[in-house]
Amino acid sequence: MNGQMAGNSGIKLIQPGNIGKMMFINTEFRYLSETAFNELGCTEIHGGYLLINRILNDGMKACIFPPDKERTVASVDVCSIAPSKFYSIDYLLLAVSSPDFQRAVYENSSGAMMKRINKGRLVKIPFPLPPLKEQKRIASAAYSIFEQLDILKI
């Protein structure tokens, strides 16, 4: 990593610790140098991307990356999914956070000391994907319930 990291400036590196359970943890960033970014063939991520932590130490975590003015990349242990007109990122977040999906992730993970799922296995785990209009309806209803729970402080 020597020569790849750039102190407190450069291209922000999102690491597994930045991904909480359905929330982005906006602290403790490392930065990649422009040279390393180019040499490694990195791809930038942007606000609205779904980020999935592939390290399973206390459950597979996922969140939606908020808008950011800095150039940003995700580390190798973070899988990113760009928004699309074919699916709802909010629905995908709910789907990958579901107990059934989480169970399948653990069944497909490996590692004695630290459980991890590789990207190849992760993308093969099936989950229901209704038409886009239904995805949006489901996500809206779920987030409405979450808001009500926050108000009730349950």
Plain-language structure description:
The chain is of the alpha+beta class. The chain has one domain (11-152): Alpha-Beta Complex (Adenine-n6-DNA-methyltransferase TaqI, Chain A, domain 2), CATH 3.90.220. It is 32% helix and 14% strand. The chain is built from five helices and six strands; from the N terminus they run ββαββββαααα. Strands 2-1-5 form a three-stranded mixed β-sheet. A hairpin with an 8-residue loop joins strand 3 and strand 4. The longest helix has 21 residues, at 132-152. It is globular, with a radius of gyration of 17 Å.
Key structural traits:
Adenine-n6-DNA-methyltransferase TaqI, Chain A, domain 2, alpha+beta, 154 residues, three-stranded antiparallel sheet, three-stranded mixed sheet, 32% helix
